[in-house]
Design brief:
The chain has 11 helices and 10 strands. Helix 2 crosses helix 3 (about 75-80) and helix 8 (about 205-220) crosses helix 9 (about 235-245). Strand 7, helix 7 (about 170-190) and strand 8 (about 195-200) form a beta-alpha-beta unit. By secondary structure, the protein is of the alpha/beta class. The protein is about 40% helix and about 15% strand. The strands form 3 sheets. The chain has a 6-stranded parallel sheet with strand order 3-10-9-8-7-6.
Length: about 325
């Protein structure tokens, strides 16, 4: 056993997954909160570097109101500029029907049907102008729209699953209500959502709450693969990831170099801190013997490219650690 992996006779690493899938969010998460002006060529080069490192799903951009998020106004042009790699999905985010129409009209977008729910009523009202319950009910319309488009629903996100900077603590009981609604919705609509993400939208999770809420989600939705979308707002994002790994979680969103954040949740640059860092998470998995299929050398190079494009020091630890890239093993 690795040092420190046994506590009072209990093997705390026994539930580690053998393999983890990491979905990359940096190109969308990162550039949506930066000033307008980064070239399509630079952003396409970053997406290509991420694909070359082994990431098989990359969220490139969002199809959202260009008046609210002008950084994403050129999403269609960015998709068209990318040199696509076989076996990689290049996805986009939409939040309303106009955005979905734009994504459908962009030939190079890999469409992924997703539903969105909020555990925090205050955050839903701030982000969408409606209550969390009303927003949840609106997902029925999305199911109908996806059916019409012949697009299966692949995932559901419960936003603010660990807390909200406006409302404060979100209780486990409130989270359970959101999960129960999703369970009921699937039964009523005759659909199965295979992937359900608990999203720490503003970075309020801690390792104990991660363990407890992952367990709760599995209890309510026993047939779903539970994933996590973690932010590092308070500096314990990677500790939260480790807690999830110890619960056997094998699906994560992450962001190269720690890029990004939610542009409507306060904090530095008008946002929460970004997702947990892709290369740091991949390194943690490699140290624990968990396969990711990612090449750490190339991830570090992609992180450094992101830093050069943005023009300031980014939050990734591995690329600043002094570890020579020749010592960063390929994780097959």
């Amino acid at each position: 056993a690795l040092p420190g992996t046994r506590m009072k006779g209990i093997d705390v690493m026994s539930s580690l997954p053998s393999r983890v899938d990491i979905h990359e969010e940096g190109p969308r998460e990162g550039f949506q909160i930066e000033p307008v002006g980064f070239s399509i060529a630079d952003r396409a080069a970053l997406v290509e570097a991420l694909a070359d490192a082994g990431l098989h799903q990359i969220q490139v951009a969002s199809f959202v109101n260009p008046k609210r998020v002008p950084q994403m106004a050129d999403a269609a042009e960015l998709f068209a500029a990318i040199r696509r790699r076989e076996g990689v999905r290049y996805t986009g985010l939409w939040l309303n029907e106009q955005g979905f129409d734009r994504a459908c009209a962009t030939p190079s977008v890999d469409l992924v049907g997703a539903l969105y729910f909020y555990a925090s009523d205050a955050f839903s009202r701030m982000n969408n102008g409606v209550s969390a319950e009303a927003h949840a009910q609106s997902q029925r319309q999305w199911l109908a729209r996806y059916r019409e488009a012949g697009l299966p629903v692949e995932s559901a996100y419960v936003m603010t699953a660990f807390g909200c900077h406006v409302e404060g603590e979100v209780s486990e009981a409130r989270l359970e209500q959101s999960l129960q609604f999703l369970a009921q919705l699937q039964q009523e609509e005759g659909v199965t959502v295979p992937h359900v993400y608990l999203a720490d939208t503003v970075g309020m999770a801690n390792p104990l709450s991660v363990a407890r809420r992952v367990s709760l989600a599995r209890r309510v939705l026993p047939d779903a693969r539970i994933g996590l979308h973690l932010h590092d707002t308070r500096g314990i994002g990677m500790a939260n990831a480790l807690a999830a790994l110890q619960q056997g979680v094998d699906l994560f969103d992450a962001s190269i170099a720690g890029l990004g954040g939610c542009p409507f949740s306060g904090g530095s640059h008008g946002s929460s801190s970004g997702n947990i860092c892709t290369e740091d998470l991949a390194f943690l998995c490699a140290e624990l013997g968990i396969e990711t299929g990612l090449n750490l050398n190339q991830l570090i190079q992609a992180a450094r490219l992101a830093e050069r494009i943005i023009g300031r020091r980014l939050d990734g630890r591995l690329m600043h650690s002094g570890l020579p890239t020749s010592q960063a093993a390929v994780n097959p």
